[in-house]
Amino acid sequence: MNDPRTDWLCAILGCGCADISLIEHTTYCYDDVLVELAQRGCRLTLASLCNGIIWLGKKEMQEAIDQRIAELEEALIECELHMTPEYRALLTVNPEEDIKMDFNYLDMHVILESNASLYLEYLMDECEQFQDHTGFGLEGDEE
């Protein structure tokens, strides 16, 4: 027999009890996830909740990329350096486009669909942070 709270949550999300395990490992505050869903006009379901978690992860990764680009630009100006491979790579990646989610209620995969090698070379810490915060690892799907 299930806990009544679990049954209630499953009814709200339109899923089964086992499906709840998909979202157990996120460290994001669910208030933030719900705000993200509301801003995007999404109805609350398990699929939208998973999407909201991934959207927050993508936003966080983009913020880290933007911060690193700013640091590199400052160093380029101060030292009159040429564009580095890291700088060019960071200008190329776009988490919103590069990271895709495959969700089918049985399991979920988050895939680096584009630029996987650049993420793994220049953004490994951010990829690990994405996994820690979303509860989903990034799978490479390139080359």
Give structural notes.
There is one protein chain. The termini are far apart. By secondary structure, the chain is mainly alpha-helical. The protein has a 3-stranded mixed sheet with strand order 1-2-3. The chain is elongated. It has helices at 4-13, 30-39, 46-79, 85-92, 95-98, 116-122, 124-134, and strands at 99-103, 108-112, 138-140. β1 (99-103) and β2 form a beta hairpin. The protein has 7 helices and 3 strands; from the N terminus they run αααααββααβ. The chain has one domain (29-140).
Query: Which class best fits the helix and strand makeup?
Result: mainly alpha
* Alpha carbon gyration radius: 18 Å
The low-confidence parts are: none
Which band does the percent of strand residues land in?
Answer: 5-15%
Which descriptor suits the 3D outline?
Answer: elongated
